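RECORD TYPE: protein structure
NAME: Activity regulator of membrane protease YbbK
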Amino acid sequence: METLWMIEPWHWLVLGFILLIIEMFVPTFASLWFGAAAIIVAALTWLLPISISVQIMVWLVLSAVFLVVWFKFVKPLSVDRTKAGLGGSVIVGETGMIVVQPLPDRAGVVRFSVPIVGAAEWMCRTTGETIAVGERVVVTDIVGNELVVSSMKSQAVINKNMHVQ
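PREDICTED:
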């Protein structure tokens, strides 16, 4: 008995390239993985005699694996957490650590674990508070190119007093 409907390797190849072209217009990275899976199935069917049902199953499994790997492992790595290009107000409320003690006559330096607005270290001053090297601080304001910081301890006291009232 002759099969009425046959999927040839070039069908998978065409499908794969169509899905890759669609990806250029719909930047979701979903059709990219379906297209890559179709191209792999095309290569497999040229090398091995695989039935249509196995071809479809391989395509579905590869597509699912590619999607899971993309959304679970690769995409989270590409998230830009630097806040570069955003206004200075995004810095207020960020926490960092003092690496050079701010004194009344000179600015200190605060370091952030993740670069904030393109820099990991910023010049800083206090509002009269003494803060030691290694102490955790929170940004309360911005004056020119310097941040105004206060210790996490004093901020905790202020927040506690605000909740009591």
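COMMENT: The mean pLDDT is 84.
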